[in-house]
Amino acid sequence: MKCPICGSTGLKTTNSRSTKMGTQTWRRKECQKCHSSITTYEKADLSWLYIKNKSQSTSEKYNRSILTKSILLSFDDPELEAINIENVLDTIEQKIVSMHKTTLTKNELIKIVLNTLAPISANATIKYLANFGPNNNLRQINKLIKSI
Ligand SMILES: [Zn+2]
Question: 30 C-alpha vs ligand 1 centroid, how far in Å?
Fold first, then answer.
């Protein structure tokens, strides 16, 4: 990696630590030429992860942008301005990585999304469940509304 300030390739790592439940590495680097300090974050992409659709017994590659779109649909506009969607997705991916599985069922993924959305917005949680939850989920929605 080049120094974003002067373009030199002489970057030296001066500090690093594991963050976000061990799923990311934070590094402080110093440019040997212009002495600027730069911070980098390293995380694994989830290209190894497959989502299994039980009813059709097919699986597809996990796709962060598809998941992002489905979550964006669940928030009302004023709420969207208040949340950091990238942070929400990072939290979901941390939970996925900490499960140490290469395949998740769609229901497992939906459960992770719902658990992540619940403390952020009751409205978005209910909308996500209504849009993407398993069929016949009226009972689940009522249970969720009661628990909030
Ligand atoms: Zn530099």
Answer: 8
